[in-house]
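Thanks for the sequence, V.! I ran PD-(D/E)XK motif protein right away. Repeating your input here for the record:
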Amino acid sequence: MKKSELNAKWKNIASFKSKKGYQSLRITGAIVPDLFLATDEDGHRCLLLFLPNKVDVKLKGTDKNKLLISYLPSKGIVLIKLKDFDFKDLFDDLIFSIYSKINLISEPFLASEEFIKTFYKWALFFEDKKVKKLGEEQIQGLFGELFVLHEYLKQSNPTTINTLLSSWKGLYDSANDFEFDLKNIEVKTKKESILYVKISSEFQLEKEIDKNLELLIVSVKLDLIEGKSIHDMLLEILKHARANLGDLSILYQALNQKGLTLENLKQYNNHRFLVSKTESFNAGHADFPKLSLSNIDNEISNLKYSLRVTHLDEYLIEMKKY
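Predicted structure:
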């Protein structure tokens, strides 16, 4: 099922003349459980799972500000309702996630269990959090990380997609921004005219045992016309993830670490960047110029320093121009 197909279903439901009760359409004929898209009399979008009478569903209804789940035993329906239309895109991703989890489950009780479990996993992403507004450097840094993740996902397939999504650790306050089995990657984003990047701790360029370490520098320029925002980058990432049947909750869970959502990232749409080039350096090399945990005295901590990029040519692994 594609995003365009889901949008077409919602448009069809909106065109129904009768507005009494629930207006619904089966999500697709290719699914085993009876899963339907619907709107109620007030126009709220819903997802309905119809179950046989014999199925005993143990569910305490949960009513949150933007989302609720309930069981209607007289109708044999487990219902999820979106109460805030501003979150319709996130609600669609919840639907995609539930669909991917239950579409081949033939046992109704198991389908209902997975339906409910997935709801509770996603409910956290619909909560409002008071978060401090991102500063310019944080916006630029997040853009660079999302750009790198997007570049990886462009080469992904259904087998690799979740591994790539899980590799992004930038919002978890991990030592490095990306972690793979054989290497870690620290991403630094700078204006193309700036000659250095800022290293913010003695852990960022510390090489793990039996792993390579790369410093990936993303050079950008501001462009309010042609440039992309962090919200734009996130939409592109979601597009690739959906196309490869990825677990979107991995991405939303990462954003949730800092209280970021698809909606509140829109406030930064006036910050737009074009990537001019990326440079990857072998920061694990014994002679790479750095101050890290293994080459400073134990008494020293909370290091912050600048690293001059133009002096790193001998450690260059790859440069790409855009």
